[in-house]
Amino acid sequence: MSIKGFIFDLDGVVTDTAEYHYQAWKRLADELGIPFTREENEALRGIPRRESLLMLLKGRTYPETTLDELMERKNRYYLEYIRAISPRDLLPGARELLQEIRAAGLKAALGSASKNAREVIERLGIADLFDAIADGYSVTRQKPAPDLFLHAAALLGLPPTECAVVEDATAGVEAALAGGFTVIGIGPHERVGRAHLVLPSLAGVSLSKLLEQLSVSA
Ligand code: BG6
Ligand code: MG
Hints:
This protein has helices at residues 18-32, 38-42, 49-57, 64-82, 94-103, 117-124, 147-156, 170-178, 189-192, 207-213, and strands spanning 5-8, 107-111, 132-134, 163-167, 182-186, 197-199.
């Protein structure tokens, strides 16, 4: 098997926006008088905005227009928090790995469920390191369905068997496995243990070492 492209999730892999998503949901939950903890937020990793809101509401029902308003409000808070994002917010190793991938003539795509993904990579100063972008606007069925990653691979012009997906969320790992991708999980085993290779972070991860660990060559 040979890997010719990498598809990176954004939140929690390239940058720690997971914390900003938490802050924004927490502010909304506080306003609604709904208890919401950091632990509960863990279950929202990789989960799209609407589904996250429904999980946060824990069975409380609201008219559709109110749900829309609540999602807009959360996103307003999130946008407030990410306004301060700069290249300093890149997680260790992310830029270096992307640069190595490009230098080796391999392809890189973004595969994020976020509708704010483009804005975030612009602010991080890494937009030009991606050959293709699949985001929260790209497909209807979100992770754990494989559609977003399949779309990203198609944009790269590569079959899933020639792409590795880098993910920090359980839903993302499942999506990549369902699509027939090689999967690199970032984070604890309890969360990403089903990936083919599990790493604590991208810090110090070189392309050659990664391909060696995956027992594949470019
Ligand atoms: C994912 C995050 O990348 O994007 C989730 O892990 C988030 O926490 C989802 O809910 C959707 O993001 P956005 O920016 O479209 O609300
Ligand atoms: Mg993520």
